[in-house]
Amino acid sequence: MIHNLFSVPIYIEKLNLNNKKILNHCLKQRKHLKTASKSNVGGWQSPSLNGRHQPLEGLLTEILTMGETFRRNLNFKNPLKLANMWININGYGHNNMSHVHPHSILSGVYYVKTFKDSGNIVFYHPGSSLMEYDWESFKIEKYTPSNACTWKFESAQGYLFMFPSWLFHRVDSNLSKKERVSISFNLVD
């Protein structure tokens, strides 16, 4: 009998928000805030957003609602709250290198504006650093969540991805001539 011991859940949901209003807010923030240096290679990342941001209220409600559903599914005891949130704007060739979000329970990203070839979000299997040596691609007949070192999803406009904060991930280079705009966040207990 085969038992799948350690699964890695990723919650993906298409949201119905006013992306035009959110996008305008993101672009205004870029005019007023200096870029932060987190995981971005090129592009612009805001520092953590402080205070109320009325255009983001609907998104925040969705994040907290999804976070509560995900928390219950993971059997965590305490409700989660928003620790921080920031904006990412990536032009042609810009990406976000592989990273985790320490000191958080769940993390995520909402794609405000994307285009074809905007770059996939890529998640790493927790054992990928060892798997890649002995489970090379020429040995794999078909990739599945059990044998793949990485798993990719399109960074599609209007989609929210939520995942355990310890899960390594990156966002591939934007190969579109238009900017990819997203909002990332962390939830804590």
The CATH class name reads Mainly Beta
Number of strands: 11
Task: Give the SSE order as H and E letters.
Answer: EHEEHEEEEHEEEE
Q: For the largest beta sheet, what order do the strands appear in spatially? A: 1-9-6-11-4-3
Could you say which structural class the secondary elements and strand pairing correspond to? alpha+beta
Instruction: Identify the quaternary structure here.
Output: single chain
**Overall helicity:** 10-25%
The CATH topology assignment is Jelly Rolls
CA-atom Rg in angstroms: 17 Å
**C-alpha geometry:** globular
Discrete helix count: 3
In percent terms, what proportion of residues is strand?
Answer: 25-35%
- The end-to-end span amounts to 37 Å
The CATH architecture assignment turns out to be Sandwich
Question: Can you offer a commentary on this structure?
Answer:
This protein has 189 residues and is of the alpha+beta class. The protein has one domain (11-118, 155-188): Jelly Rolls. The protein has three helices and eleven strands.
